[in-house]
Structures are given as C-alpha cells and as structure tokens.
Amino acid sequence: MMRQSFLLWKSKKTGPKSPPFWYNCSMQKQQTILKNYTGNSGVYQLVLPLNMEVLIPEDDSVRLLSHITEELDYTNLNMAYSSKGRNPVVKPKTLFRVLVYAYMNNIYTSRKIEEACKRDINFMWLLQGQKAPDHNTIARFRNGRLSGNVEGLFNQLVTKLSELGEIQYENIFIDGTKIEAYANKYTFVWKKTTLKNEQSMQEKAKAFLKKLNIEFNASLPLSESPITVETLHKAVDFLKEKQKEEEIEFVYGKGKRKTELQRATEMMQEFLEKQTKYDRYNKTFAGRNSFSKTDTDATFMHMKEDHMRNSQLKPGYNVQIGVEGEYIVGIDISSERSDQLTLIPFLQKLGKNLPQSYRHIVADAGYEGEENYVYLQNQKQKPFIKPQSYETMKKRSFSKMIGKRENMDYDAEKDEYLCFNHKKLLAVGKTTRTSKSGYKSDVTLYECESCEGCTFKTRCTKAAGNKKLTTSKLFLEKRAESLHNITTPEGILLRMNRSIQVEGAFGVLKEDHSFRRFVMRGKKNVETEFLLLGFGFNINKLHNKIQKDRCGCLLHEIEVA
C-alpha cells in the first residue's frame, strides 16, 4: 500500500516527460510519395551507351531474326492496310518481327507482348525507335491483318532455308498432335443428341400442325419430311394474322389465363426457334460429331494431358506438321480426330505452298490407309508408313492368334485361304466400302467351307456360323510395299529420324515453349497463331545449328555400339 502511494505521489510531482528541444512538430505528419517517382529521388545522372545496340550480344537470336525477315516480301501484308488515313503506329514488318520474337520466347498474350515491348531491350531494338504498340494494336494485327498473310511469309522462310541448304525436299516426317482450344470444355454439342432431339421435336411439330389445320381451318403442308423452318414461319404468321382478325390481346404474367390461340402461337414459336437452332448446329457439324459453343471450329477430342485421369474429352484441334532437317516445313490445322483423314489434305496444301514435292513420305501407323497409299502412288511419292499391325506382329503371342489373316496360308491362283485346321476359306462375294472422305474400296468376302465340329473354332472366331474374312487386295498389296520400304536400311534410318525430328519438334513446342493451349478462337486464327509459333521455332533451330556448327545436317545417323 505504501509502495503504490509513493509511485502515485512521484507521478504527480514529475508529470509527463517533455519532448526534447530538437523535436519538430512537422515530423508528426506522415510522409507521402509522389505519383511521379522521379520527384522522390535525388538528382542522378542517367548513364546510357550512345548506341543501345552494344547491349545485345553479337550472337543473339534477335539479330538472326532481323536478318532473315529483312529479306522477305511484305507486299500482301502491306496491302491489308488502307492507303488512306493515318499511317499505322508501328510498321507491319516491325510488328510481325515483334510477334515472331515473342513466340520465340514463350510470350503469347497481347498484354504480355505489350509489356515486353516496354521493358525488354531486344524488343526495343526490333522496334527501332518506334512507339511500343499496345495490346489492342497487337490483337487487331494478329487477328485481322496478319491472318491470311502469315502463311505466305512462313513459306518464304521455308524457301529461304532451302536456299541455305537446310532443306532439300527429300524426306518429310509427318505427325500430328491434339492441342486444346481456347474454349469452355463444358459447352459441348453432340451430333447424336442433336439428331435425337430434332427428331422428337419434328414429331411433336407434325402433330401440332395437324391439330392447327383441324381447329383453326389452316392449310399448312404436312407432306414434307422433315418440317422446314419456312413451314414453321408460315404457321406462326398464320396464327398472328388470326390474332389480328379476332382482335385477341395476348396476356402475360401470373394469374392470367391464356387463350388457345396464344398457347398455339407460343408453341409454334418455340418449334421455330428450336428448328432454327438445329439447322445451325447441323451446318456447323460439317462431318464432325461434336463442336464447342465457345469455339465452333473446335472438336471434342482425347488429349494426351489428362490431369483428371478420366479420359475427359476437351475442345481442341488436330495439328499436323511436316519436318525436314529438324525444321517445320508445313502446318495444317484440322478438326478431324483421326490422323488418317488428314494426310491427303496436308500433302495437297504442302504442294501448293512449296516449289517442289517431297520424294519420301515418312509417317507412323496412324496414317495408314488404302486411300493414302493410292494417293502417294499417283503423286509418285514413296511411302514409308508403318502398318498398324507392325508392332503387334513382332510379339510372340501374335503367332498363336490362329484367326488372324496373317497367320493363314494364301493361294493367289485359287484366291483362297487355308486355316489352322486345313479348311479352305473361299471367296464368296465382293462389295464396295465407302470411307468417311468418300473413297470407295473394293472388298472381297471370304467364308470357311465348314466350321462344324472344328476343335479350334473358339480360338479362331466368335461367330455362330462359319469363319468369315473381309479384305481389300489393293490395300494388302500397298501395305506389303510400305512394309518392305520401312525394313530396308534406308527405311530404318528414316523411321529413327521421324521419331527424333517430328516428335522432337512437338516435344520442344509443348515442353520448352509451354504451348499447350491456343489463345485465339476460330480455325483461321488458330492457324495464324501456330504459323507464328512455327516461324519462331525455325529461327531458333537455325540459330542453334549455326552456333553448334550443324548446318547442312538433315539426318541423324544410327550410332553403332
């Protein structure tokens, strides 16, 4: 108690401590930082070299890009701009270089490219003193003016590589991969579901039109099948005219009772909207089984990147490339999920873009087909395509599959097969098989003379009757030729280089460049984007080969242990 009284007495006596003599009242205020940061710092002398070019190494890839693109013809790109009005902020040639260099350095979005133009000295060097473009300028240039012209610039680069001796139009390695589209993966539209819903709606619409003809004395046609949008338009117009004649006012809202005429009008309008939507969907399918509402050119496909491990279908594109000498010489964007149907369109496009045709076509088993073999024969191109059953035939268990055609003896003169139980499979007829692309193939049907009582039937076939085979003789002939080609020393060397060059190119694009999804929508824009990526890939490849003294090396040799 005495201790507390003493402390209270001392505090009253001394009072609060007074501030020191040097204390300034202005220090109580919080310091502020100006928006213009140069006003917050002292006076500094800015030191820059007189020539900013000395900051860029002499062997930098940006110098090679500037040198290569300087010799290209930009006439078509310049024609995309109007001759009237003000000049563009950045020259088209310069902006094209900026885009290519951005794709060379894994920069794909327009905002990131804008940021690089303001901060990266290599981009500033490419601009050559021109104002840094904003993201809107970059997006409009890439989506609009560059689209349709970048393919010509890419083809000029391929021609330039051939002049440098990096391409000889000898061996082309072809492969494809699926890349995800810039679309919502839950906005799918399936063809089977659309046809099913359309058929159900058609039946309801026919019954309702028949009811209208009876109740409202209409003369709407019912004989046509299916009912078209024009007929539904006529039905809606008829009901609206009926409303005007009878001066009936349609009511809406809770507690309102609708007339039969209003219910019929609303029902017909619903049929009209649905049929219009189904017609638009069927036109969009164009031979496909699905598409995305966000990007109607994208098809739902299985991707190699399956993070959920549930084989989920995602909207994407089937990207086809051709590689020679480790350079990408051709690009095609397809909505087809199967590689087999993409080979001929890709080669046709390649023939239009390049001055020469390739002699040897090297591809994996996914491209094998009679139509492709016949096309290569007509174009006088030698196929090095691995048969689809090639890997299976090398297994020891394949010889035990007695029901396979390859394990049966064939008599070419009598045109018959001999099964494991020495029973004959005779030719019983011929038919024509039409592929999705419209190609017609002649197919021969074979049937065993009798499988009754055969002890090997369960190992040979699951059919209730006799064993049957269907095969195309032309396809077997072309497959045998291609099999012979890939088993020669030249074929073995080309197959090894295919796995190194074209699959290696996809590995670089997906892993090193982290390009796993497009940033633009629409097949045309997607092709523009991948051509920019391919252009940058070729410049990087040429730069690496120059620095490592590998110029002129088109094939990797087989290392002998």
Q: Class by helix and strand content?
A: alpha+beta
Mean pLDDT: 88
End-to-end C-alpha gap: 98 Å
Assign an overall shape: flat
**Unreliable stretches:** 4-13, 21-27
How many DSSP helices? 18
In which range does the helix fraction lie? 40-55%
Largest beta-sheet details: 6 strands, mixed
Number of strands: 13
Cα Rg: 36 Å
Please indicate the percent range of residues in DSSP E strands (runs of 2 or more): 5-15%
Q: How are the elements arranged and paired?
A:
Elements: H1 2-14, H2 61-70, H3 75-79, H4 92-104, H5 110-119, H6 121-127, H7 135-145, H8 150-163, E1 171-180, E2 188-190, H9 191-215, H10 229-246, H11 260-285, E3 290-292, E4 299-302, E5 313-324, E6 327-334, H12 343-353, E7 360-363, H13 370-378, E8 382-385, H14 390-393, E9 409-411, E10 416-418, E11 424-434, E12 440-448, H15 457-460, E13 468-471, H16 473-487, H17 489-512, H18 523-547
Parallel strand pairs: 1-7, 7-8
Antiparallel strand pairs: 1-5, 2-3, 4-5, 5-6, 9-10, 10-11, 11-12, 12-13
Helix pairs in contact: 2-4, 4-18, 5-6, 5-7, 8-18, 9-11, 10-11, 16-17
Task: Throw out a few tags for this protein.
43% helix, flat, 5-stranded antiparallel sheet, 561 residues, 6-stranded mixed sheet, alpha+beta
Describe the structure.
The protein is of the alpha+beta class and 561 residues long. 43% of the residues lie in helices and 14% in strands. The chain is built from 18 helices and 13 strands. The chain has helices at 2-14, 61-70, 75-79, 92-104, 110-119, 121-127, 135-145, 150-163, 191-215, 229-246, 260-285, 343-353, 370-378, 390-393, 457-460, 473-487, 489-512, 523-547; strands at 171-180, 188-190, 290-292, 299-302, 313-324, 327-334, 360-363, 382-385, 409-411, 416-418, 424-434, 440-448, 468-471. The strands form 3 sheets. Strands 1, 4, 5, 6, 7 and 8 form a 6-stranded mixed beta sheet that branches. Strands 9-10-11-12-13 form a 5-stranded antiparallel beta sheet. Strands 2-3 form a two-stranded antiparallel sheet. Strand 9 and strand 10 form a beta hairpin. 27% of the residues are buried.
